Amino acid sequence: MAELQEVQITEEKPLLPGQIPEAAKTHSVETPYGSVTFTVFGTPKPKRPAIFTYHDVGLNYKSCFQPLFQFGDMQEIIQNFVRVHVDAPGMEEGAPVFPLGYQYPSLDQLADMIPCILQYLNFSTIIGVGVGAGAYILSRYALTHPDTVEGLVLINIDPNAKGWMDWAAHKLTGLTSSIPEMILGHLFSQEELSGNSELIQKYRNIVTHAPNLENIELYWNSYNNRRDLNFERGGEITLKCPVMLVVGDQAPHEDAVVECNSKLDPTQTSFLKMADSGGQPQLTQPGKLTEAFKYFLQGMGYMASSCMTRLSRSRTASLTSAASIDGNRSRSRTLSQSSESGTIPSGPPGHTMEVSC
């Protein structure tokens, strides 16, 4: 039998009152597909990659990532890495509305802008953190520039192009729903939207009253016209770096992330399924995601001396390892969070981590 380790995640620590935020420097560079704006926090650390983020549709880097990177326990991480937060074209604060007929870049072209950013900053490698459309963009970049990507944290990734049934459903929804409503349905579960919590009210207001809503619609259209990434386990097209896939339980993209997990290299991929986190776990559960990110970085050989202050041994979770039945294939590591007891997913035995909180 495999060794068991029990883990519990307890209290969360927001940014302390009076804690001074890092100084930010915002830059814009021209690329073959237009200008792109990004914000840099911190200074480059010798022999360490930059943490490089890309946000989802309907958001910008602040509304997508600020709750996560301002979380108290995250400060230990960001002190050890320089950060680059990219705003997709036209999504930055104060961005002018693109003229009528403007050809917005495809997601592939947005990925092709990233080398221009890294060249401008003279950065050689990154650890990417992307949500939704941003997760797709970073994955596309990693496929074409694998030597520059040390790791990826992909939240709510859908690597598949829309099939004809998806397109039909999308068109039908477009007849009865506004663009903001469709984007909110992409970001959050129907249960969350019906509950209309303070968080949902905040982001409903952000999307509905965005001064650059026309630009957001262009980014939304590019996302819906994405190509299939064509991941294939054991095939030529796959992510070469360590990957942590993240999705909330009952989130809109849960099935897509589960399918993505089945297509990636099981020896390089961890799967984090978070309960009670909704469609945007980086907003609703920044503490738990921070802890998982620390483990991910430690697995890559960084922050080996980091103290996991909010993790303790308990009965609520287990780390289970077992050899594969056929001796050749092992199942990917799965980090699954539940509000009650952990449950080891069905399927061939492999390397599985279950966390309850």
Describe the 3D structure.
The chain is of the alpha/beta class and 357 residues long. It is built from 13 helices and 13 strands. The chain has helices at 61-69, 75-78, 107-112, 114-121, 133-144, 164-176, 179-187, 190-195, 198-208, 213-224, 254-263, 281-284, 286-299, and strands spanning 8-9, 24-31, 34-41, 50-54, 83-87, 126-131, 149-155, 243-248, 269-274, 311-312, 318-321, 331-338, 350-356. The strands form two sheets. It has an eleven-stranded mixed beta sheet with strand order 2-3-5-4-6-7-8-9-12-13-11, with helices on both faces. It has a two-stranded antiparallel ribbon with strand order 1-10. The longest helix is centred in the last third of the chain and has 14 residues, at 286-299. The protein is globular and about 50 Å long. Contributes to the regulation of the Wnt signaling pathway. Down-regulates CTNNB1-mediated transcriptional activation of target genes. May be involved in neuron differentiation. Pfam families: Ndr. Belongs to the NDRG family.
Any chance you could write out the topology, listing elements then pairs?
Blueprint: E1 8-9, E2 24-31, E3 34-41, E4 50-54, H1 61-69, H2 75-78, E5 83-87, H3 107-112, H4 114-121, E6 126-131, H5 133-144, E7 149-155, H6 164-176, H7 179-187, H8 190-195, H9 198-208, H10 213-224, E8 243-248, H11 254-263, E9 269-274, H12 281-284, H13 286-299, E10 311-312, E11 318-321, E12 331-338, E13 350-356
Helix pairs in contact: 7-9
